């Protein structure tokens, strides 16, 4: 069920029987020379839509601008600073609880959002207001992703490429895959500036000249479809698990006592 | 041109030659028993898309969650609190200026956002960072709107109904128009709680039981199409005017001196 | 009753029997070449004083510096930025509730404060702390004001001029009325920069060279006195109405249910 | 010269020739059973007015609500919390600098404001924006004050009583002086809860049952007048000194070097 | 008992039986040419350690960086701005209350921290969360300190010198005592820039060229040891007093009623 | 060189020739039944001290309280909330730049601080103020750590145990190693609550009953010493590399252009 498509009288029953909401979040940032800036928020929205349809759980609109200052050097990257992002998402979710929502799945497709969603989630749980889970599709099927492509990358690599080939093929520049690979960081582990165990970079451009990582020539829509289905299964399972929990299971644990 | 659909190399030329961005903003809030919660952000996005296509100016993704605490009593209304909204939009626009943007049209379709967009716009101009104009479609064609419908309303009335009938007819509950009118505030000026010149309400539900205002039975898709075209002309004209300004024309005026 | 003139033992009885406070707010900003910068706060204070005396309700000191960045270009305009204004007023009112105040009338005479007082008022009501009403004198007698003068203006026009002529004639430069009109924006609707329905200005000086609007030569103290009395009646009525409400009538409404 | 009484054209010359502003600040808080809550802001305003008249320097309106949470237990005490106070005053003064003001005398009559005005003053100086001095009348004539009364007190004692007797005798309850003394803390040094060198109180009521300190029966208007004149001389001298400084003398010192 | 040295199972019993914590705070700032920057935090830590050992009360780690912008001109002075300091200390103490702590002694050895610790303490008490006392060693034995040295100073004077001679003699440059005195402000009351009763300085360097005050040649370790013991007795007494209080004694007083 | 031990004249030469500072940060939080709460800050301080001595670079005092809400359930865990931590560290480092510091190594020994130090580091670099690197000892020698112990853990495992055995053996409860292992999460990968790729926990106690992870019985001081030396070498190398950089190498990269 998609919140924004409904008129309010048609939402009343949901809030009477359910307390879970699916909130998709992504970014609008460079994804190499071959993928659209929308990549992350398209992926998040697609998973949220798919699983909302499968399960009947409520999906909200997608937060499309995320925390992407590290991609700023590439034309068009849009972002908000971390405090603004956290406060916006926190306010959004707190206000959802007005309607009875007390558990949320952040369907997130941007690595740069993770820590901020966790920080917001902690505030909400520590205040005993809501329990939020941050979920990323590729984390849910790590083995499949590893098997699918020889050289993955954390950003704009074959896995994201395949997903957009599956979801929005018209937005993919297939003719730039080799360029993406050769002008970027085909072997991410070699490119990322880590020195003596410490990251010595802040921006993606310091690790990849064109903002892409991995070997994009490996990607294709079929594999994208398979990964999408497999991760959708994972998300579906997670939502069902979360919905089935008693609120008390989700609250912050009590203080520990050695005596017990 | 839609920012999110492009890959970064295809945006470079735009930022070299243009400094204007169109940023659509709306809300996800009750719009009576007959319209989707998305109404405002669908309208904003439609105008932004239309004029971006006509003119070639850059459009960003739509901010879909706005300042709607006054609709909270109706199931599903989503909102962020004003400080979070202002800071999110401000951070978003400030960061756009990294790419050379120095003028922005907020294509806004939610009255509750206006004052906050003006406040953000002032911060940006007073800091000499960017010049932003807040634009609402119905304000641009007030006479047409007045002529089109006998009993308009500030929210979820025939004008918004007609626009959604035109833009997304499948989301309109045509069979609830009479209900919308009769269960709401068909004559807004009679319903709005103003006492001794002062608003004595904070929430829409205090003025309309079902959240709708005006006479929705008057609405139809054809009128919606006409209004859409007429207001699009206005927005196009505004964008062209703004793009043609020298930066110095847009900056805050100097201090006044009587002697001159 | 004026809070600041009393010693604390003489206030105890009030807080035991009443829960209403009148809080006047204005600005210290240019009001054309003929009126003092104090105009707005003098007007607010005069109404608050008059009605406090008539009714016995408690009046607090006047907040004299408001949100007036849009008048900055004229020598002497003082202002605080919106976040500082909101937080100051909110803190002030929240702390009044320590003494049992749970309803407040903001007697406001500066348009630039309105939205901020409404935002603060919402915070207070949504937190179930206090119910605040923002009141402006000219909004309470719109017909009288319209009839009184041929060409009114939103700022430093004949209505404000007449009021100061009545309240503090020694501060009015009667010899500058023609200058105020001719060097300003005698026909405000023609001067205000609105383009395609959008405000394309942020500062008053963009609409009026000398900061005045309307035809000041129409103003006189007698009309000022009449308007003052008429609006005082309105404010008195509002205070009595507010004081007579049960707290439950003032609290935020419950969530809506279609089934009821 | 009083800012608020002037029309803007009459202020222009001041800002062309002078850069100093006098900003009076006080509180609205209990001052024992015999003095009005306005005591501090009346005193601040009186000194500012006197010296503005003597010298021609610009005086702004008075900030009447200060940091007085420590008097909250007494009916009517109004206050704002420290962050709101600091931000309001800072914004007010920063915005004054728009007109060319670069030095400010805070004519402050409330001890609870001191540290906050110093904190604001530091921000302004460290940002190289303005130089502000916090001044309290009794600190400027400590010997006179000591000689004038046998038993002074930090709050609502004979010195403040005498000043209000001089400035606004109609607001003084002369018949409650003995009550003020006997029901309060006639010997402050004995009453203030300090234990092992540490303050163990936060509120005035912990040290004085009726909020007064010292022996009020000693006070009279003549002494008040003398103290007022003497301290006015001090303030006048301070303003002249400050106005005569080069800006470079007022800026933050350079880093120290041992070698020199 | 020192919190940081213990493993968690060994702390459980403390929180079951006690609710007091000792929190040492100081600064890292210039202390003349002869004393280490650590002076204040070493002193605070030494007192906290001594009394925690004597009494068994829990001591936390020391906050070593405080509010010292006024010493910035001297090489090496480290500081945090006041809002950051207040929020850090407030968050630290609020979180201690999770374990049952409801009373705290701030063992503070830096004058610049005092007002901020009081402000934090007020927030905590007004929120009914914890009761915190700010304690400085020299305030607890003012007569002893006065007798010990002919010319004391508020900063880097003989009293602090003697304490570091006692506590960490290897960090004291004994050969620079005369330099400290002669290049600094040997007679503080003559050096501090106060004009017409108002402080006209913000930084220590404006009052002392080398940052030291008083006559350091008077200091010796024996006197330091005596002062340390005497002040430790005071702190011990204060802790025992505080621990013995009922929580109700420590809460904010009720509102005052003249009749009541 | 340790900042806090020096008197200011002895620091001047450093700031004239060097621009690097080493800032140690840790936490005060449970580390299983066998290690002190100080574990992380002791480790950070030890590395910072060692390398400051080896290289002569300046070390500041240690920030001992970090972001540890996830350990709150265990008695004694102290923490500050993320915004307070970030602002405190940011203010501290920004103020160090007053003295000429423009590069910082955060010697951090607490995983919970990492993202916050990176966020602060970004603010500083994006503002062109300073370049900060976050370094954790175990990340610098991952292979050695893996080889050293069969079952490591992210927290309170054998690697941290061995380090404290080396650095502060008297604080280690050797007799509780088996208890630490058996009552905790001996095989972390099996214990950490991850479901469908998403973390479904917020607190350590949800993954380990006693807060420890890994097999502590493997730890010994000799291995601790070896690891300490090896990681110290890494840190030394990092400091030398950073110190040798031109400032321009450390600044944020320019915008990307495809044309180049």
TrEMBL record, chains A, B, C, D, E, F:
Co-factor requirement: Zn(2+)
SUPFAM superfamilies named in the record: Creatininase
Keyword Metal-binding appears in the UniProt entry: yes
GO biological process: riboflavin biosynthetic process
Metal-binding listed as a keyword: yes
Pfam families from the UniProt entry: Creatininase
Top-level division of the source organism's lineage: Archaea
UniProt keywords, alphabetically: Hydrolase, Metal-binding, Zinc
GO MF annotation list: hydrolase activity, acting on carbon-nitrogen (but not peptide) bonds, in linear amides; metal ion binding
Protein name per its UniProtKB record: Creatinine amidohydrolase
Provenance organism: Halarchaeum acidiphilum MH1-52-1
